[in-house]
Amino acid sequence: MSGPARYREISVSGSPRELGRQVGEAAREEVRGFCAVALERVNRTVSISRERAIQIAQESCEFARRYRPEYVEELEGTAEAAGVSLDDLMVLQVRNQYQPEEAGGCTSVSFAPSQGFRSGPIVAQTWDNDPALDPFTVVLTRHPKNAPSFISCTQAGLISYMGVNELGIAACVNTLPAPARPVGVPHYFILREAYEAGTLDEVVHSVERASRAIPVNIMMSTPQGPADLEVTLDAVHVLMPERNSTWVAHTNHCVHQSLRPVNDEFPELAQSHSRMTRISDLLSEHGTQAGLPQIKSMLSDHDNFPTSVCRHASDDPVTGFWETVFAIIIEPESGRMHISRGTPCNNPFEVYEL
Fold it and tell me: Do the domain assignments include residue 114?
């Protein structure tokens, strides 16, 4: 991917409406561009009419209002400032509800510091998705009134995405194939509330209380240590590092013992099991000696290419256009994010700070 190495940075503050208006003013072109192409890109892997897409967006918006009405108010501010409709913005929030699973193949990891560790806590992932979304991606810092500040790498117009708050809660996200339904609280709203938390228990409560539409995996670094949340429609299953381990990893299949039968019902995404084996081997190999250089190397790994941790375009007739659009490494204690704009094997990691 050619072009600038850094994503544009935006900082906003104030009430929900003020946050939204500032986002819409600062990222007007990105918001409008994302809204213009969102359904077209969705229809490369699933067929849905605009009428049905808007219906799902509107019905899910009502779930979102009941969950956190101020987040909808923020989107209303963005819509006003960017010159788009709230329906357009809600389509962005629910586009992953238009199909039972996405074709993404993200790989995520979380580390805890231990004796001999060369860094503090870290959570990281490859974000494997449609490279057409790159022009709409920004690094956005929000300073909400009466809530923790947080920074995220996100497409302009989304209510949240991967990032870290000032209390040390950091989150990465990857697809989890499991039963889904078209309408419910969009997972971006659930992730946004997680950035108001200061503990793992608070995050789990935020997720549990939402009437969810889709399953999702949330890889986290928390003050209580690394944690991975396999979120289904009915439960939140928390995975922690195994005994005598300091890390937890995830790809795109269910790992929690009670959820493993789900894997037999859903197709494997981009050889998820082999990527899980590979990233686990790399983590075990580096152990407590892992630092930023080793983590960057893991995210750039090409073993079993083209369905490797670092993903490039292939000749797959359905999902071959997907690739690692960016890789992200978050240091929650410092509020620092290292992000490669494009595949991490051949693009530099730029630093962004809260």
Answer: yes
Return the percentage of the chain with pLDDT > 70, whole number.
94
- Kindly indicate the confidence band of residue 115, based on its pLDDT and cuts at 50, 70 and 90: low
- Identify the CATH number of the domain in which residue 297 sits: 3.60.60.10
Domain of 289, in residue numbers: 101-353
Question: What values do phi and psi take at 339, rounded to 5?
Answer: -130, 130
For the record, the structure tokens of 222 come out as: 């928390």
Whether 316 shows a pLDDT value over 60: the answer reads yes
pTM (predicted TM-score): 0.95
Whether 12 maps to a domain, the answer reads no
Question: Structurally, how many domains does the chain consist of?
Answer: 1
Q: Is residue 317 part of a domain?
A: yes
Cα–Cα distance for residue pair 94/188, rounded to 1 Å:
9
What's the full length of the chain, in residues?
354
Backbone angles phi, psi at 7, to 5 degrees: -80, 150
Q: Give the separation between CA 117 and CA 127, rounded to whole angstroms.
A: 26
